[in-house]
Each structure stands twice: as C-alpha cells, then as structure tokens.
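Researcher: Checking consistency across runs. Here is DUF2807 domain-containing protein again:
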Amino acid sequence: MAMRLMLLVGAIGATILGLTGCGYVSAGPTATEDRTISGDPSAVLLEGSGTLMVQPGDPALTITAGENTLERISSTTSSEELRLAVDGGFLNSPGPIDYALTVAQLDAVTIDGSGEVTASSVPAESLTVRIEGSGDVLITDVDADQVSVVIEGSGAVRLRGHAEEVQVHIDGAGEFHGEDLIARTGVASIDGAGDITIHASQTLEASISGAGSIRHSGGADVTEEIDGAGEVRPS
C-alpha cells in the first residue's frame, strides 16, 4: 500500500512539473521589433499592461519587450482602431512592454487594464478617451472641438490644450485632471468617489452621486446636482 502511495505521489509530482515546465515560459531577453500597420488608424486600444507613446507622423509601430512576449503581442487594425494586446500563451509575466506609435491623427484612446498612454501634438477633430481599469493617460497639446472622457475604475486622465466642449464621466474612483484643458463649456459627472478638475469659461453642468469631488476654474456659470456627500467648488 505504501509503495502504491509513493508511486502515485511521484506520478502526480511529475505531471505537475511537466505541465509547469512546458506550459509556462518567461518573457525572455529584451528585443525590439518594427511592426507593419495596416490602414491609417486614428484610434488605439491598449489591452492589459504596457506603456504606449504616441506621436504625429506616418503610421508606424515599434515594440520593445521580452522575445517570448513579442511573439504573443497582437497589433491588428479594425475599423480604424489599432488593437495592442498580449494574446494566448502561458507567460509567467509579460514583463515590461514599450510601444512607440506614430499616426497622422488620434481621435480615440482606450485602455482596458493597467496600461499607460502618453501622446503629444497629435491632431484630432474630436477626442475620446476611455479607461476600464487602472490605466493612465496623458495627452498634451490637445486642439479639438469636442473632448469626451469616460473612466470606469481607478484610472487617471490628464489633458492639456484647448477644446470647445469637454464631457467627463467617472464611474468609480478615477481621476480627471483638466485644469490645463481650456474649454468653453463642460459637463462633469461622477458615480462614486472620483475626482474631477475642469476648466470652463461659459457653462458647466456638474453632477455627483456619491462622495466625489468636482473642482472648477474658468468662471463658468455652474449648475450642480449632488446626491450624497460629494462637493462642487471652485479650484
């Protein structure tokens, strides 16, 4: 009986070791790869982790990551949106991933996960920023008619530049830093404990359901609606 038990334990251990050794791999040594981009994307979706830098120029993408991670990174374009993600495989951890992207125009940025996006001086007719998770977005030199920001989770968005209208909605504990985004009109709403700083010179509609905070500058006429312990005040 004891012999059978020892053989059984040994077989289970060998199976686990085999699955672990064959199924999971490390990110591997760091390498850089240039990717061909199909079409002329004006939107980008970053899934999971990674750092993305976007600059104006002809469409081009360079990725720096571990060799095993590079093999699993998908960079596909659909309906003018470039999707960047680590697909499939059994990586212990994808490790650091750096994306360098140039596009002629950037109208939308979406993060699904914990990634970071930084962009500067990229033209946009209208700009939409969306975070689902804990990602971070910084965009400078914004020049757009309309800016729309949605944060679901604990992500943070910081925008600098000019816009005619800015709309911000936070569902959760996210943060929007828009004191340096000079706009004429604004709409700001929070469901939860988020924090919004916004600049509007003419009108601002502010609403909070929960314990969030909306701080405003620019001298706009403010209408506010609060349900809970939130506050709307000048910054």
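Researcher: Does this match what you'd expect to see?
Model: One thing to look at in this run: The longest strand covers residues 136-153.
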